[in-house]
What we know:
The protein has helices at 10-21, 33-42, 55-61, 76-89, 101-104, 107-114, 122-135, 168-171, 210-221, 237-246, 260-269, 283-288, 304-316, 330-334, 346-362; strands at 2-6, 25-30, 46-49, 68-71, 93-97, 118-120, 141-145, 150-156, 179-185, 188-190, 203-208, 229-233, 252-257, 274-277, 296-299, 321-325, 342-344, 369-375, 380-386, 407-414, 417-419, 432-437. By secondary structure, it is an alpha/beta fold. A 6-stranded parallel sheet has the order 3-2-1-4-5-6, sandwiched between helices. Strands 14-13-12-15-16-17 form a 6-stranded parallel sheet, sandwiched between helices.
Amino acid sequence: MKIVICGLGKVGEVLSRDLSREQQDVITIDQNEQRLRNLMMAVDITGVVGGGSFLNVQMEAGVNEADVFIAVTPDDETNIMAAITAKTIGAKYVIARVRSPEYFRQIDFMRESLGIDMLINPDLEAAREIKNIMIFPSALSVEHFGGGKIFIVEAEVEAGSVLVGKSLKEIGRRHGNVLVGVVESGDDIFIPDGNYIVEAGDHLFVSGEPEEILLFLRTIRGAIEKPKSALIIGGGRITRYLLSMLKTQKTRLKVIEYDEKIADKLATRYPEAEIVCADGTDQNVLREERVANYDYVIALTGIDEENMLISLYAIQQGVKNTVTKVNRTNLLKVLENAGLQAIITPNKLIADQLIRLVRSLQNSSGPGIEGFYRISDSKVEILQFHVAADSPVCGRTLRELQTKPGLLLLCLMRQKEIIFPGGNDCMQPGDSAVVVTTEPNFQDIKDILLES
Length: 452
């Protein structure tokens, strides 16, 4: 597919790299010639220098023949104008990044009247991710499928856990009706069989319904209670979205924001939260605000290094759960063994969302991908597929299907029922199938078959 990306900031660079690895024909537009040249030397893309909202620049980039146009500059108005122009001159599918809550409230108008097919919002997706993580205290990451019916949660096995030294076959469903779909052990990540022996330090990715996963987490992590308080450092867009999501819950919320004007706006708009105007990166301020007394500390400043240091300090003070926003994930390798817990990367969330879309648009039999996530530096993909009536996977038991190596059918969602399938189960038309695979570029459920 021909994909034009307008804007080479953090999101644009991630998308350009990821979609290029997906073997797409990627053209990137940016005003910074040096930045564009550096990326073209590193990744198999082409580029055009200029403003992405200008007609002549879009024509030079071939937007009129593009299958997908994605506007992800830092400016909402530029993205909206670029998307309208792209749609007008012939781009088939047009996407714009819009971060402002005010614009995002007009999503229906933008789709119907302006022709923008999809609006993406990294800040809103990050807030949703944080809310999901808070459902499962001690989780390192959380993905959800089927509208929140089933979750995949990453948790670390501590030394002394009852699971250490036992095989997955021995563990079975004794500690909750969950399935371990992926194991990350040191530098290795793989889809385990029943003979795998769990070791201390392993990261297990378990799937199931929320109540069952919480039961499993209590087994490996001890007593887990619903969080009653959260301290948020930074009052930006993610915080605003998050406060809106959490205001109906019985969670005591405090925000520390350095900018007085932003702090005043937050205090006016969110009276249910306590807003403190201070420097949340200052350890003295954190001590004064009794950081150790909070169930969650969520670091959401605009600087990655500050967020990591805030979380590390909170952990040192005894805070059980931290969430850290980090856009430049290469920084995490420097602090690999420092003990950071849940990491939020807004750019990755949006990249996963758009790769799912691109693969669905590529699929000639229709939009088969309903959900898509990548874990462990994109070494493993988790996909939710719609099972069509004419799919070759129907009508045969799983035992009879000749599937590719390196994959696992994690579960089936059949109406309101969640099924962890065995060898004698069959996929039926209308099912949603969640598949874990180490092989990239699946576009349809039929791609799990050897003969596909």
